[in-house]
Fold this sequence. Notes:
By secondary structure, the protein is an all-alpha fold. The chain is 75% helix and 0% strand. The longest helix is centred in the last third of the chain and has 29 residues, at 126-154. The chain is elongated.
Amino acid sequence: MQLKGVTMDIKQALKTALDFEEKGHKIYEETANNTKNPIVAKTFRYLADQELFHIEEIKEYLNKEKIELKGDKLNDTKIFFSMTVKGFKQKTKFSNDDVKAHETALELEQKAYDFYKEQHGKTNNKELKTFFNFLMKQENAHYELIQKAYEYIKNPVAFYTEQEKWMADGG
């Protein structure tokens, strides 16, 4: 793939994107390794693995190689989360560190999404627009996964009520 018309600004944007993804990978890996909760560990391990795909894709783009966009789809993250939570329906304790990790992850994913959206709007290069759009979709899928996990750890009963559409009997 040739990146005709790519300016240093775009290359810098890609390097900044790479930095976002590397920081995300580090934070997610540390969280997965440090939590005592199996749901949190599995969720953050999944996110860390996804960030590795993004890192490789951005490096390929920077090196002007052919890129195969391999990230997950929103439906993939929903399936992953559903299967993870079903496996841990028993009472599980979450620490304040688990809650804080989810809050930090939500902030990181939102910042990355906003950055990719801004870069998408700044370029006229069709291939680069496609690439930034892909990254935006990835960050959105991750945000939704983390948001669901966050809702679960804050209040599992309310989470199941919402997810399974239980109706409260007023009687």
